[in-house]
């Protein structure tokens, strides 16, 4: 069965195994019903979430490219094989053409099954839009001239009229992408629906969450690309949905960027490595130190009030409040910004760690003790304000050996 693919198998190279040429539904463990229906509870989902978060590559940059061709396919994610280009000669031709000129190609599906469409993009700009993208378009002199202009740096991009979030849900490539990526799609759509309830239709239409195929790095699922900036984020969870939308709504807000980028940024498609590094450095949190900053990236485990562990990453010298708030964990708000004017970053860390030379957690100050009087669910010899406890190698090692830092219900 070819599903929605209309091209016969004989158009494919003869040396390809026939099993690779068929478009087969992916396994039940990874399948999705349609592009806009919730992912089913699969046997692999618990295992996908149990996989520890892995450190992102350093430096966090994408390979140099001139831009992105976003190719919308009429085929829904539930029918994507592991390598779409092996089953679809047109996708293969587009991908190879783009690779020759240094333009990234990503396949996506937004529910439209009428045919192929495409947008040629650079960071914060639309170079060209193709409501119908066919082999004739690919071979046309107009399209080739557009690519030449882009590669030569003479393109005149226009602002995009829509904010779009691409999320990799390519389950046939790796179940983690459909399990975690699928949940992120649902969370983003639900959050947008909640925020746009009662607003005019045109306003909600300017936001879009789209399934996309393999983008690279499924071990860091969920992966997302934010348009119009073409920012690539990884190690995402459904709990990040509100923060992602806040960041897209206010991209110049440094405080929002500093909550999201340090642990999730993987670069900007179409930007130079130097520009990507500069953007990343501008997002790093201020680290408390009297000497030149050493921002070593370390894992730290938080456990929520329902007993669910969350392994995330922070930087040496960064407060536990900043890390937990950035990752959207528990009820951590940090309303006062760490100035000891509230107790909304209350968490549980054994006081015994203060005297443990391997961990050496900061001792309580009078100001912290005073503010803890306003915290709910106080525990003797455990209650701390996260803004006053800085991440260190010792604290990181201790947290990963058990429950780690526990978070209250309120």
Automatic annotation (TrEMBL):
Its cofactor is [2Fe-2S] cluster. SUPFAM superfamilies: 2Fe-2S ferredoxin-like, Thioredoxin-like. One of its GO terms (cellular component) is mitochondrion. Keywords: 2Fe-2S, Iron, Iron-sulfur, Metal-binding. The keyword Thylakoid does not apply. GO terms for biological process: P450-containing electron transport chain. Residues 298-410 form the 2Fe-2S ferredoxin-type domain. PROSITE patterns: 2FE2S_FER_2. One of its GO terms (molecular function) is metal ion binding. The keyword Metal-binding applies. It comes from the Eukaryota. Belongs to the adrenodoxin/putidaredoxin family. This is 2Fe-2S ferredoxin-type domain-containing protein. It comes from Naganishia liquefaciens. The lineage of its organism: Eukaryota, Fungi, Dikarya, Basidiomycota, Agaricomycotina.
